[in-house]
Specification:
elongated; Rossmann fold; alpha+beta; eight-stranded mixed beta sheet; BirA Bifunctional Protein, domain 2; five-stranded mixed beta sheet; 2 domains; binds adenosine monophosphate
Length: 442
Amino acid sequence: MSTSFQTIRGTFDILPDAYTDDGGTRIAPSAEWRHVEATVRDVMRRHNFDEIRTPILEPTELVARGVGESTDIVQKEMFAFERGDTQYVLRPEITAPVVRAYLQHHLDQRGGVQKLFYLGPCFRAEKPQKGRYRQFHQFGIEILGADEARADAETIAVLMAVCEALGLSDLKLRLNTLGTPERREEYVQALEEYLRPYANELSDTSRRRLERNPLRILDTKVEHEQKLLRDAPKLIDFVDEESLVHYDEVKGLLTDLDIEYEEAPRLVRGLDYYTETTFELESPGLGAQSALAGGGRYDRLAEVLGSDEPVPAVGFAAGMERLFLALDAADAERPGPPTPDVFIAALGDDAEQWVFRTSQELRNEGLHVAHDLMGRSLKAQMKEANRQKAPYAMIIGGNELEAEAATVKEMKSGEQEEVPFDELTPYLQRRLEGNASGGAPA
Ligand code: AMP
């Protein structure tokens, strides 16, 4: 079979089975996605976070302002379009939308601090490569309304808890403080003054950043530039006393929680609204796409989005595709695809009709039931039961219909038993329970 259509570059299908994409990356099957999502949801529940779902379409202006005009995202990576007189963008991240929703719906009036999590697709027109897609998936949290260092530490703790629950270790948490925007502005000026005489030696990217967003030059991977930066003014020397106290508190709390971190004085984030604590979680084995998650405090975003009051806030965003790369590298345990509890094979028209009806009844009782839909031979049906890895198969033919009892076969041992039709549900439930608890079959 064939089609002339393909997924758009930088996007991918999630299929029942794992497959390898054109770039040689394993794309996890839907069961693994469900597993990761369920793990995220469970960790969020335990940490008392409530889910928020915002639209994929947002006003372009929200992203331009919220993410920052000078960022790569706004400069060149937005999927934006116009219809009528509305400017739309496919959301490139979910923090600005969550803060928009918080302000729009006055979520502060729910009382206390709002602890929200999200999970869903984001879109960025980046150059597709391993671990970098145009449609990718993020999950993350935002804690809105708390300026305490404990909120920063809890944010990091939740991220680490998700990774631990998934079986990821050997991660590197890099931590820094950006201080207040006012002090950072002074620092940026000093950095710019320092770098200006070297402008001709800088890469094109860094030279552009020198004009638009000099702070981002600290991110450089170019060795020569890294060397230049060694003697550059240091951000931490510009951070005021209050911010330093906050930063110390965060570090103390992480130590209390046995969360290891590495101070990364040149870690800055591409987004303009970040303040104080900033962090990144890396899986060092992953090469160029080693960033699993990033986050930090963004106390100034609400005002950027028009709030007349500041809303202290902290959060993180993690990339699901990167998590899968890390899970693959760590060979972490993940569930296989779901298998039917029982496969019911039918011989003849009457049996097929019975099987079709009885399957629905068993399904209504909560059992996962498979049967043939192609009128195939018994042999083909049993082969299909094997392929689908059903632990039990049931064979229904004329004799079984007459006796009102099914032949139930345990696939592994090949043992068969006659089970009256009206005892099928409890029988199967008992046997499956025995399997699940590892006990001997009843
Ligand atoms: P950011 O919002 O840029 O801080 O991204 C947060 C996380 O999302 C990153 O650490 C990555 O794990 C993930 N991420 C960002 N952009 C992409 C992308 N284009 N493809 C896949 N994952 C991404």
